[in-house]
Amino acid sequence: MQRSTWPLLDGRTRPLxxxxxxxxAVMDPDAGKQPRRRGxxxxxxxxxxIDAGSTLENPIVTLYAGDDPGAGSxxxxxxxxxxxxxxxxxxxxxxxxxxxxKENLATAGVGPYLVRVHASDRSSDGKKPRFLIQVIPGERxxxxxxxxxxxxxxxxxxxxxxTSFEQPDExxxxxxxxxxxxxHYESITVIGNxxxxxxxxxxxxxxxxxxxxxxxxxxxxxxxxxGALASAEFPLLAVNNLPDDDDDAFRITLAAAGSFVVNxxxxxxxxxxxxxxxxxxxxxxxxxx
Length: 289
Prior knowledge:
alpha+beta; 16 strands; DUF6924; DUF6924 domain-containing protein; Rossmann fold
């Protein structure tokens, strides 16, 4: 693709009304990346995939490139992620990876870019989804930084992922209780990597690896977030990662999590069935085997 005449985007563009519905990408169209993960944002070198949601209306997109203007207000969702450009070229593309604008968003050439995506009405029937995409050059130290890991862990089976790092004593007590518990916790893989600080459930699910047929390595995720570590019961956030399942997440105490994990692995009960058994405060506490 001839790109030498493409100008750098300078600041903000007027809203772009898409002609067709579909997901968006900020990428080098020649990179040949094929996304295989889920989540609002998913990144690789020279490529970022943006989930446009479930509405069938054509989206309206506004672009920004250059110095960090700060996050905007009045949006339903605001998320950001780092993209590494190895070619010095990034363009807004449609779901078929065809450029929508002949403007280069990689204003600082090769290196890292913070991409902040604002969205509203991604899944509102009868409304056009709206996006503001900010592409901000990151610090350049001469060495190319590594992009975010595409998978949170290659371990199969249930995951316990720590996303809050402000309560080290509580986390230590949680691990002590886990290690001193029954064999029902043995199948859980604990992830305590600071790279996932502040991650939402969707962001964690987007990092879970999948096999060649798209089946996730881990179908059950427990999250030790700030809310979980703020209580002596450790009410972990339970997330169903089965494909095409839309069960709501719910909280479950660490004491009850062992029987939950075992029964889910044996397919004795459904995720949604456990979610229906929460107490008035939204936490599941019953222990049964």
